[in-house]
Design a protein that fits this description.
Length: about 475
Amino acid sequence: MKYCSTRGGVRGWDFRDVLFSGYAPDGGMFMPESVPVLHPDTLRSWRGLPYPRLVVEVSSLFIPAQLIPRQDLEVLVAEALSGFSVPEVVRIARLKEGLSILELFHGETLAFKDLAMTCTVRFLDYFLRKKKHRATVLVGTSGDTGGSAIHSAKGLSGLDVVVVYPRGRITPVQEKHMITCLEDNVHVFAADGSSDDIDRPLRRLFADQELVKSHGLMSLNSVNWSRVLIQLAHFIYAYLQLSGPEQAEADAALPELEVVVPTGGAGNIAAGFIVTRMGVPLKLVAMVNSNDIVHRTVTSGDFSMATDVTQTLAPAIDIQDPYNMERVFWLLLDGDGASVKNMMEEFQNTHRHTLPENHRKLLSQVLSTGSVSDDGILETMRRCWEENQYLLCPHTAVAVWHHYRCPHSPGLNRCYIATASPAKFQAAVERAGLTFDLPEAVRALDELATRYQNLERTPDWCKDWEESLREKICGLVQEKHRDSS
């Protein structure tokens, strides 16, 4: 298994190379040069596997045994997923009227990011310990990724974690999961801007190949292929649990599963699309909030940013630059790196691109979309509680809104992705007129000390933020040199 860039300038990298990279040197994103196809008999044989075992089976398709032997992979995944609050790690809630919700939020920071992040950090630590090397992780977050990266990597001797979050645009619980972590290898910045603003200086830092190489700089956003790789597993898990593939005749087509995903940076959608290319019959629905670039792209070909990121009740998907759509486009265009390069460079330079109608039609055949207002989020949260006594987080409500607008029909297998616990979004729950008891771990956050640095909004804020972060990254390496000497 070798990896290439979506923009065609890089080929032949192995998993370890890709794991320790952010964007590819040509500005693209890494993808497997070929996507393995699962035989229906393989899918049937995986039916009933516990989620951690399924992660191992899927990961082994993309991580050669000469890099991580199978027995080591099993240990790493088991250790990564051992701290979740339910024994099965992920869980399906089966509610009324065919409403099935895949709960992915039982990790330490109560968000689906914990699933892929814990595994990815274990992979990193595995290679770093073997080589006795260090790395610096640089993460921009719209809310959940930063906390997950911090809690997955805190205290590890071979990793420093630098996280930047948009001050005032995330919930108090999301913020506290980051700023209350005082380990020496954790460094948090609060930026006066949106998550898309944060991405600009981060892209410039990752584009500096001398900095990347000399300081072991890497990403743990879903830019990192390993994050997307682990997310393949929960789509396959949902399919095996809800579609009944073992009941299909040996020579018959496998039944289809519709998966509805709340979407921001499009990492989950990219993972789902890869799973379809592996031969699993999924019908994907991407649901967005008022930041509707993915919806506009599919319905009209308008792949362009709005002037500003709209703050909504679902802040983790308040994103106008759905960077993982680059992976979707690459798959859609059968690996045409030149076309993807032209498209994405135009988008990055002008913040807009219009898909040719033939490309838009191809996209609409593999992806349906919808957009939900804050009122729709609140209405969905209330209705789900009234009918099921089941509390949704506002992001999951973005997905479940689809259930009430497109009622479940007999014979349709459908799953909704629950990306976070409602405990992280108390204000939204209260606005919906609902109440619940906060977990003790969340209440305890209020009593903890905090530590972070501010990135102020200056006239030349992008350059200033870049320099502040560069200074921190370079300073970390100097500190480690002093400590080792």
